[in-house]
Design brief:
Number of domains: 3
Pfam families: HTH_1 (PF00126), LysR_substrate (PF03466)
Number of helices: 11
InterPro entries: LysR_HTH_N, LysR_subst-bd, WH-like_DNA-bd_sf, WH_DNA-bd_sf
Organism: Rhizobium phaseoli
Protein name: HTH-type transcriptional regulator TtuA
Mean pLDDT: 83
Oligomer: single chain
CATH architecture of the largest domain: 3-Layer(aba) Sandwich
Order of helices and strands: HHHEEHEHEHEEHEEHEHEEHH
GO molecular function, one term: transcription cis-regulatory region binding
Strand content: 15-25%
Length: about 325
């Protein structure tokens, strides 16, 4: 018959191992020492192996089998604590899981900060995270696959969805420093970019089908996501717009160059929280919306971003003469 130790037996075993003696474990558990010894003896009988070496030592010492069992006991009792915390949270109205869809336009630093604090505040709440482009965030909310969405591209108001502006982002036209457009030492015109390959993200949701935003070139390469577009632009395979938060470090290091192109609309891009009207968020999801609102309110606006880049260019050391 397979051993079937109880949670109580495992708790007693773990306490003896951690306190170093049966007497210390009895005090920690507020039980008679004889009860502790009897519980360990029953556990060893079930497992058909000794867990402690008792002969010739004043204090019980774990056997090799006991050391192996100790890790299993810690894991099982740890899982029990997680289950208890989840039950407590559910009784208090806290969600078991929060599903969130986040746009690539949301600054990654804000995402990391919010999720880090979320984990600390709601350790019992599971998280299901999706990252999407353009209309994907709205689609995930509408389909019920996401409890809340954080993003933009609210192109058509839907009465079943509650939206609230909580921040902003913006796109910048960029190219690799060795790209032909980056070599032109003057403001760029439409004529300059028309024949150059522009990299464009395709909206997997279909919500923006038939609509192109800031597509100025006659030659376009369409890719499925921002990450691939970013890498191809850095490789010099084309030019295109990327979220300022994504390319901040590339602009500072010189891996990408901002293109001075008036024809490219560089206005701020609103970021919204989204949720279904019929599915109001619970405490954890509501906290997450407020946390994103707070983080995004501290993100630099377009003027501040350009001022930082200008200062960086002004303080850059001059190129050495050949």
């Amino acid at each position: 018959m397979l051993p079937n130790p109880t949670l109580d037996q495992l708790q007693v075993f773990l306490t003896v191992a951690e306190t170093g003696s049966f007497s210390a474990a009895s005090r920690a558990l507020n039980r008679a020492q004889s009860v502790v010894s009897y519980t360990i003896a029953n556990l060893e009988a079930q497992l058909e192996m000794p867990l402690f070496e008792r002969s010739g030592a004043r204090q019980p010492k774990l056997t090799e089998a006991g050391k192996a069992m100790l890790e299993d006991a810690r894991r099982i009792l740890g899982d029990l604590q997680v289950m208890r915390a989840r039950v407590k949270s559910l009784r208090e109205g806290l969600e078991a899981e929060v599903s969130v869809a986040i746009s690539v336009m949301v600054p990654s630093r804000a995402v990391v900060d919010v999720l880090h604090e979320f984990r600390e505040r709601f350790p019992s709440v599971a998280l299901n995270l999706n990252v999407g482009e353009l209309g994907v965030v709205m689609d995930l909310v509408l389909s019920g696959k996401a409890t809340i969405g954080i993003g933009g591209a609210v192109l058509k108001q839907d009465d079943s969805v509650v939206t609230e502006r909580i921040g902003h982002s913006f796109m910048l036209p960029v190219a690799a420093p060795n790209h032909p457009l980056a070599q032109i030492d003057r403001p760029l015109t439409l004529g300059d970019v028309r024949e150059e390959v522009q990299l464009v993200v395709t909206d997997a949701s279909g919500r923006t089908k038939g609509r192109d935003f800031n597509v100025l070139s006659y030659k376009t390469w369409r890719v499925s996501d921002i990450a691939m577009k970013h890498q191809l632009i850095k490789a010099g395979l084309g030019w295109g717009g990327l979220p300022a938060s994504v390319i901040h470090d590339d602009l500072r290091s010189g891996a990408l160059v901002h293109l001075d192109l008036d024809a490219y609309e560089q206005g701020e891009y609103a970021i919204y929280s989204m949720r279904q009207l019929a599915n109001p968020p619970g405490p954890a999801a509501s906290w997450m919306i407020d946390a994103f609102r707070t983080r995004l309110s501290h993100c630099p606006n377009q003027a501040d971003f350009h001022a930082e880049m200008a200062e960086l260019r002004d303080t850059a050391p001059p190129l050495a003469a050949e």
